[in-house]
Amino acid sequence: MIFNIPFKMIENVNDDLQISVALGTEPGQRIVTETLEEKPRDRNGNHLFSVHPTKPWLVTSSDNYFIMQGTLKVWFKWKDGDPFQSENIQDYLDFQNSLVPNYTTMTNHQEDSDNKIMSGQYTYLPTETSGFVEPLVKWRPYTSEGGIEIIDRDTVFVCPMQYSSGWTFQSADLMNNDSMTVDREGLQCYVLPGQLLHTEDNKRVEKYKLTKLESSSVKLFNRSGTFCKIAKMFK
Length: 235
Fold this sequence. Notes:
Elements: E1 2-3, E2 7-13, E3 17-22, E4 30-33, E5 58-60, E6 66-77, H1 89-99, H2 103-106, E7 110-112, E8 117-124, E9 139-141, E10 145-150, E11 156-162, E12 168-174, E13 178-183, E14 189-193, E15 197-199, E16 204-205, E17 211-212, E18 217-222, E19 228-234
Antiparallel strand pairs: 1-4, 2-3, 3-11, 4-10, 5-9, 6-8, 6-10, 6-11, 7-8, 12-19, 13-18, 14-17, 14-19, 15-16, 15-18
């Protein structure tokens, strides 16, 4: 494994979920898993992914990171014997485009089937407020190697690590001078914004801090001067 992206721990939630944020990043810093055995596991040693029921060359993504600003590159590299092979590339792209319209354009998709590598590059730069959605890559190729790389200096992203499975990860975009109502889901529900936000009664919801939702919903206002990614995690 290669791991040289600087993370700052935000919070450990009852030994069930750990939230870390990458700050002060530099281009070229990476996190890479180089074998199937290096993929994340829970506290009992079980893999934190499941295989797609009809596409055995896809698995649920266990990365679950939220990009708050900047640009990330994501790539997958396969070896002989891996479940995902070059002949699965087009099926994968068709599947991704069915889940996320214009996925290949949005991520500047590139591939080299001779060298058995596929990559995408994504810049977080929203233009309108959105509802909460699933991660951009909910299903990923089942390959030996995979990684993320910092492209822009000071790219910021949040990485939740599950100690036990069952968490759902979503995110929404909230533009400057706009508001959004966030509904509580599950028995445990948290939000983590990329900018300082405020509630209707002017309480602060701190930037890069995990906040537990106690009421059934909360209305958040963005007066930060720029756009804001809101990460939502619940179980």
